[in-house]
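Cont'd.
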Amino acid sequence: MSQYPNNPEYLEKYHQIFIEQAPTAIAMLDKNMIYLAVSKCWLKDYKLEEQNVIGQCHYDVFPEIGDDWKKDHQNCLKGEINVCEEAPFKRADGSLQWIYWDVRPWYNTEGEVGGLLMHTGDITEQKERELEKKRFETIVSDCSEIARIGTWEINTHTNQILWSDMLYEIHDVSKDFNPSLEILLELIEEEQKRDFLEKCMLDLLEKGIEMNEEFKIRTPKGNLKFIKAIGKAEYVEGLVTKVFGIVQDITAIKESERKLSKANKELEAIFNSKSIAVITTDKDGVINRFNSGAEKLLGYSAKEMIGLKKPNTYLLQDELDKFRDEITLKFKGNTLDNDFNYRNADINDTRQWQFKKKNGEKIPVLATITAINNSNSENEGFISVATNITKIKSIKDELRTKNDLLNLAERISLIGHWKWDPINDIGSWSDNLYSIFDYDKEPIKITFKLYFDMILDEDKEMVLKHFENANETKIFQKLTHRVKTFSGNIKTIDILAKVFCNEKGELLEMIGTCQDVTEAKEAERKLIAAKEDLEIFTQKLSFQNQQLADFTHITSHNLRAPVANLNSLLEIYEYIEDEEEKKEIFGKFSNVIDHLTTTLNTLVEALKTKVGDASENLTEIDLNSVHTRTIQILGGEILKNNVNIKADFSVVSNIIYNQIYIESIFLNLIGNAIKYKSQDRVPEISITSDYAKGKTILKFQDNGLGIDMKKHGHKLFGLNKVFHRHPDAKGVGLFLTKTQVEAMGGTITANSEVNVGTTFTIIL
Amino acid sequence: MNNVLKTCIVDDDLIYRYTMVKTLKSTKLPMEIMAFSDGEEAIDFMLDNLDQDSVFPDVIFLDIDMPVMDGFQFMEEYVKIKPRVGKKITIYMVSSSLDPIDIERAKNISAISDYIVKPIGLGRLKAIIEELLEERKN
């Protein structure tokens, strides 16, 4: 200090030098804010090099200083220290300066505040770098958000993994999730990839080998995600000190990659298709792609076409002109724009063309032409996808012909056809179906209600059931019902249909036919009526024929026999001369005539039964009283033969019948049973009534001789048929009985066994 | 015995049998007459005498309509024993029936020579017997 004498003058000078040359911005002001001293750095920082500020007021030098700062200065003059680490300082020339300051009072030797010492620094540059860094970080953060990138870091001491927010989101976990390598390994979908990640992490942690891999993970929520993981290490003196990296969710990218690849493959498949021709042209109209389908369609090879030819090689000029004109008209409209080039229009046109093959043959083709335009709407070529429709065309033509035929057939056979979609209740009718329903106006909307309303009320329920059944069984049986047509005609229609279902068995559609069978039905009805009439007539006729046959038989056998006898007797009578013999023969005459009379009487009685109307003399008859009367008549015979007769009419006791017939039937059958009794046993006769199928049945059972039904069954009820060498057998009783039963519309049958007995069954 | 024709009548009608016998006898031709009142009696007779067919008739006048066993039933039985009968028997079906069904049925039985409608009449009967006697001579 000896070389610096403790002289206030010196001191002041030194102080001044100290301030002036201090490497930071320092200013010394008096209480009135007048500059006492200022460092060069101050002048430089505030661009005041040209000015002499000493002796000037601070506020004059910095007119931009506001009242707030002035107030702070005043406070400092009272002893406060004002320190600010950074604050913007808007300068009068409009520039912004970032400064820090330390303003504090200085004290004179008396210890009083002599003024202010200001120390400031220009931190504008530093501040701008900081702001830039902040901006950069924000951008990175935004990018991470958008790109779904998260960052991570591993503390090499604790092995603790730190995640950025995004990583929690990518892994579908909440913020309190504590990631560890073990847990993360488990999230990896593929087993072998887990080992791989473990190895990568070890390499990174121990050897600092960088990692850049993609993994498939299954998050705790079960979502499958693709992630890209990058890891880096920092080392100091060959030792890993910091491990960090990023993880990106690339699921969406992977998905679009997959979709793109799929689309690409599909496109490739289309392009490689042999059945579709794909031809593209460049901006000059020259073919640059010509697939195998095109080769097959046109007969040109790709080599002949690509880079050499234009589509007019295979297009017909007039069709091409027409196409140009139409496209021009479509896009340009009627405006007169001379610069219009149809090639630049947004063309996507599908139409039928005629392509000319290499061999000159013309084929019908359906082609879609799409313009490939760049972002400036300038044409870069066309792509044309074409299919050969020769077959389709011929099938269409055939179909049209067949449809015409079908229409004709429908008209002739009075058939129409229909379709119905039950889900949406939409139907359609063929032209002829409209005419069957007498509808000649514009086609209408066909619904089930429209059809159902036409059905006659009596048939409605049946039709509804039929449709329900078809819905259940998926089979539509033939349905016949009547409708009242639009013009009020009643028609009978036959409906046939097929039912179509989806794989779940739900009804999708019904397709069917509908035939007007009104006339056929009417004819059928008449035919049935005629047939029924005929059947009745035939029955009558056959009954009459039977009667006629019976009488032929009777006249042949029963009337001709006595007549033949008479003739023979007469012949003998004429040639014999002996009077005794003549007398004998005369006696025979009398026998024959008696027999003939009896036969004739029987026949007359039978004829009366057959010819008369049996139903005329119907009365209510008590079977018990008929039985009693018969017993009375046959009383002598019954007593003589010790016959045991049982009668049981408990099931049916009263019948409506002809009184004379029923008595005759009882008399004949009981009489026969007694007459043809067996000598070996006591005659037993049982008579019962029964009821079955709406008819009364009478049974007469005996234990008599019985009849050999095999031998005699066929002539049991014939006139004058006898089966026993019984003196009283005349063959009349059963004949009359049968005649009477049949005249009343009944039948009589017999069951018999020789030497066991006979049962006659009469169904009245 | 060679010149005597064994003539058999099978008929239930007493009057008819009487007239047949009377008429046959009136021809005064050599014959032996036997009569049965139904088919069963006739067939029983044949069955009883199978071992001595000399008693069998040469000619049978067979009625259709008879009790117990009618003409057709008799034919069925006869056809059964025919192979065991060493003798030729001529059978005439005789009936008062003009029923074409009966006639047709009779014609379909080969063992029946003819169908004759009653009455036969003396002339026809005589001619038949004479013809049969003539056959026997040859």
